[in-house]
Amino acid sequence: MGEFELIDRFFRRPVRRAALGVGDDCALLNIRPGMQLAVSTDLLVEGRHFLSTVDPARLGHKALAVNLSDLAACGAEPLAFTLSLSMPRPDERFLAPFAQGLLALADRHGIELVGGDTTAGPLTLGITVMGEVPPGQALRRSGARAGDVLWVSGFPGEARLALEVFRSTLSLSEDDFHAARRAMELPEPRVALGLALRGLATAAIDVSDGLLGDLGHVLRASGVGATLRLADFPRRPLLARQPVAVQRMALLTGGDDYELLFTAPEAAGPAVQAAAAQAGVPVQAIGRITATPGLQALDEAGAPLDLAGWAAFDHFKS
C-alpha cells in the first residue's frame, strides 16, 4: 500500500465546512466574518506518549482529543484539523481502527480532516487543530486575578493510576485498572464547557502535564499566586480507595487528565455551575487566587503541604 492509497482508503472524506480538503497542496477554510482562528499542535510519539500495546481505535481518539482539549481551554469552537502520520509501514490492522477512533471523535465535535502528511518512520502522530473564537472572548492563561476562585472539571488524577500500574509501582483490581486505563486512553475534551465559560472564566488551561505544573503556567502568566485545598478536590471511589499519598501524587502531578483548570470571580460561582450543567460536566472549586505570587497547598486537614520535590511532567526531563 502506497502513501496515496493509504490516504484514500482511510482518511479521505467529503468536506462539509471547508472549501477544500484532503487532496490538494493546501486546504481552504471558511472562517465566519468577525471570528479569529485558534490553532494548536500536539505530537504523540510511541514509547513516549503511548504504549505499543494501546488499542489503535483508542489511540486515534486520544490523538485528536488532546488537541481538542487545547481548543476547549481557549474557548474555541472546533473547525478542522490536519494529521501527520509516520509509521514503519502501512498496516491495515492498525490503520482501520485508528481511523475509526479518530474520525468518530471528529464527527462528534463537527470537525473535519482537511490535510496532512504520511511517511515511513517510527510511529508518530502529529495533529494540528483549528477553531474559531470571537475577538476578545478567547480564554487565556493571563487573566487570573486575586480573589478569583480556582475550579477544575471532571475527576483529575485517575489516568495517573493506570500509568503507575504500567510502571509496576501500583496494583489495582482488574475493574479499577480498566477504569483507570480508560481515563488515560479515552479522555473527553471539554469543548462544550470551554464554550460555556466564555465571558465567565478569567483564565483557563487544560491539565495535560499535571495540575501543579499547569497551574504554574497560569500563575506566572497572570502574575499571581494560589492556595489549593486538597480536601475540596473531587474524588471518585477509583481514586479515593488509594492511599492518601497516592491520591495526592495523582491529583497534583498526574498528567493525561485533559480536564479544564480555570479561574472565575467569586460572584460568578452560580453562573459557572450553570455553565457546567449546560455542558454536562461536573466542576469543583479547589482553591483561590492570591495577590502574592507563589503556590500553597493545604492538605486534607487544612495544614500546609510541603510541595518541594513535586514536579509536573517535562518532555525532556521526565
Mean pLDDT: 89
Question: CATH superfamily of the largest domain, please?
Answer: PurM-like C-terminal domain
Order of helices and strands: HEHEHEEEHHHEHEHHEHEEE
Strand order of the largest sheet: 6-8-5-9-7-10-11
The CATH class label of the largest domain is Alpha Beta
Number of helices: 10
Radius of gyration: 20 Å
Would you tell me the structural class of the helices and strands? alpha+beta
CATH-defined topology of the largest domain:
Phosphoribosyl-aminoimidazole Synthetase, Chain A, domain 2
Biggest sheet statistics: 7 strands, mixed
Q: Indicate the multimeric state.
A: single chain
Tally of structural domains:
2
Q: Give start-end ranges of low-pLDDT stretches.
A: 313-318
The count of β-strands is 11
User: In percent, how helical is the residue content?
Assistant: 25-40%
CATH architecture label name of the largest domain: Alpha-Beta Complex
Beta percentage is 15-25%
Distance, first to last CA: 37 Å
Q: What is the molecular shape?
A: globular
Protein name: Thiamine-monophosphate kinase
EC number: 2.7.4.16
Catalytic activity: thiamine phosphate + ATP = thiamine diphosphate + ADP
Organism: Ideonella dechloratans
Kindly describe this structure.
With 318 residues, this protein is of the alpha+beta class. The protein has two domains: 3-133, 2-Layer Sandwich (60s Ribosomal Protein L30, Chain: A); 149-301, PurM-like C-terminal domain (Phosphoribosyl-aminoimidazole Synthetase, Chain A, domain 2), CATH 3.90.650. Helices cover 34% and strands 23% of the residues. It has helices at residues 3-10, 56-74, 92-108, 158-166, 174-185, 191-196, 211-222, 237-240, 244-253, 269-279, and strands at residues 36-45, 77-87, 112-120, 124-133, 149-153, 203-206, 225-229, 260-264, 283-290, 294-298, 304-305. A seven-stranded mixed beta sheet has the order 6-8-5-9-7-10-11, with helices on both faces. Strands 1-4-2-3 form a four-stranded mixed beta sheet, covered by helices on one side. Helix 3 links the parallel strand 2 and strand 3 (112-120). Helix 2 packs parallel to helix 3 (92-108), helix 4 crosses helix 5 and helix 4 packs across helix 9 (244-253). The longest helix has 19 residues, at 56-74. The relative contact order is 0.16.
